[in-house]
């Protein structure tokens, strides 16, 4: 699904450029970040899936579509969490099994881009429900939402096909390292940047900003302004988290693409890019834990809405003002 990072990513171009210092620092950083991320992410995402599944089992119609999206996002986060121990272990040792290495690399990038696409659809869904509540309600159903989530899974797995060529023809390599030159061809990296990040980023930014504008315009027309104000701040904060998490890593992919295609040839620049890419990936991995705070807020809103017995107000703020990373 996307080009991984690691030592020796520039292949033969780096033969005269040492990355040992980068390797040592990035290894320590990954251990410090990935170990707590694994345990926290595993526990919290399992709890999130359990919580949202409860709403589906009780068949509360007003909450089903949102719950399906959030379960899908939590599952993608869980896949990322489960891939982290294998990523750490396999990236430090020579690959003994190419199929195992490929599967772990696929899972890692499928989870990343599955999360990005799920957040994009959540943002679009939320915007349409709030901006066109009467019109969009006729097209929205749990079945269609489930179909969209299944489509996302199909798309990200199809997009992971290039991963199977990361180590093609290599006899000695480490997983997430030593990528072939084919990995960094323009026909792979540029579509990844455009369709894997820039297009979803545009959707998230547009929908989140427009949703905030719509809620602000209704300030004097609703008695729930305090609730809507909280939603506005949550949407803005999660949008910032989304940008901070995924913009650096895709900038790193682009810079590494320039290195591998001999546009950037300065050794210190290559070392800095490699370190930057490691840092940005660690930052993006932490989102599988940060999302849990969003899940908690949504479940809290669901329960508050049910206790208040105000289903007519749910579609505007509580039901579909889904607060995720965006």
From TrEMBL:
Where does it primarily localize?
membrane
Gene3D superfamilies, A to Z = Rhodopsin 7-helix transmembrane proteins
Q: Which UniProt keywords apply?
A: G-protein coupled receptor, Glycoprotein, Membrane, Receptor, Transducer, Transmembrane, Transmembrane helix
Q: Which GO terms describe its molecular function?
A: cannabinoid receptor activity
A single GO CC term for this protein reads: plasma membrane
Instruction: Name the PROSITE patterns for this protein.
Output: G_PROTEIN_RECEP_F1_1, G_PROTEIN_RECEP_F1_2
The biological processes this protein is annotated with in GO are: phospholipase C-activating G protein-coupled receptor signaling pathway; positive regulation of Rho protein signal transduction
Question: Pfam families, per this entry?
Answer: 7tm_1
In the UniProt record, does the keyword Transmembrane helix occur?
yes
Report the transmembrane regions from the record: 29-48, 60-82, 102-124, 145-164, 188-209, 230-255, 275-298
What does the record say about its membrane topology? Answer: Multi-pass membrane protein
Task: Pinpoint the G-protein coupled receptors family 1 profile domain residues.
Answer: 44-295
Q: Where is this chain's protein located in or outside the cell? A: Membrane
InterPro entries, per the entry: GPCR_Rhodpsn, GPCR_Rhodpsn_7TM
Q: Which family does it belong to?
A: Belongs to the G-protein coupled receptor 1 family.
In its UniProt entry, what is this protein called? G-protein coupled receptor 55
